Amino acid sequence: MSSQELVTLNVGGKIFTTRFSTIKQFPASRLTRMLDGRDQEFKMDGGQIFVDRDGVLFSFILDFLRTQWLILPTDFSDYLRLREALFSEVDPLVDLLNQELLLQPRPVLVEVHFLSNTLAFFRVFGSCSKTTEMLTGRITVFIEQPSAPTWSSNSCPPQMTLLPSPQRPSYHDLVFQCGLDHVIDNQTGVRYVSIKPDNRKLANGTNVLGLLIDTLLMEGFHLVSTRTVSSEDKAECCSSERIKRPEALAMSKAVKPEAAIMPEQSQKKK
């Protein structure tokens, strides 16, 4: 590759070398005017163009020019200073950053409503339907009921019956029960709950609540609050939260190829 095809930029003391074509792909940008000599603020010095800006933030701008994706570390939080990109006047990038509310990490909320009784009742609400889908796939409910006696024995081992998955009244919530239950012919059965990857079958509502909270903690949630909704009905509500970063945010369809913003971790999965 000819050295005439390359340009070296010194941005705040950080050195970047890239193709002229990479910088000039957006003709209206200030970076293109810089290379064409139309912006008198920038001068060539020792084979480099010095740019008195933040070199760390410029690396994100250069990555965007190279890939059409704005790649941010998973722990990135300095969104306000990222508006440094306005200096570059790369319109597609500026349009993306102007969608400030969409760029901000958003909390995913899960509320577990627990009604303690002989037959404990659970209702789980999730602001993200994927969370309730995950829990539905992990929760299994069994019912154990006495078997009818036979001629050879007055007692038989109880039968364990697998019940349908937790009910989904909507995409965002699920309900299930555990504990003592009256089944056919006034016989009393026991509803057990198992939550993967834990193999225990639990019938006590308080134990099931603890296991459900532990499952959410392993998924990156943290417990925000617990409150008693009704002491008379023994109703409790536990709220959990997890910060969710935008996985992909498409920019204007007029930009070719389509550009988007994604965190570093999401890109590795692709």
Characterise this structure:
With 270 residues, the chain is an alpha+beta fold. 24% of the residues lie in helices and 36% in strands. The chain is built from eight helices and 16 strands. It has helices spanning 20-23, 30-36, 55-67, 91-97, 100-103, 129-138, 205-218, 264-269; strands spanning 6-11, 14-19, 44-45, 48-51, 69-72, 106-115, 119-126, 139-145, 159-162, 167-170, 173-182, 188-195, 222-230, 235-244, 249-250, 260-263. Strands 6, 7, 8, 9, 10, 11, 12, 13 and 14 form a nine-stranded antiparallel β-sheet that branches. It is rod-shaped and about 90 Å long. The two termini are 30 Å apart.
Task: Give a brief outline of the structure.
By secondary structure, the chain is an alpha+beta fold. It has eight helices and 16 strands.
Shape: rod-shaped
Structural class: alpha+beta
Order of helices and strands: EEHHEEHEHHEEHEEEEEHEEEEH
Strand composition percent: 35-45%
Q: What is the CA-based Rg, rounded?
A: 29 Å
The pLDDT mean sits at 80
- Tell me the total number of β-strands: 16
Low-confidence stretches: 247-261, 265-270
The biggest beta sheet reads: 9 strands, antiparallel
Q: In percent, how helical is the residue content?
A: 10-25%
Number of DSSP helices? 8
Between the first and last Cα atoms, what is the distance in angstroms? 30 Å
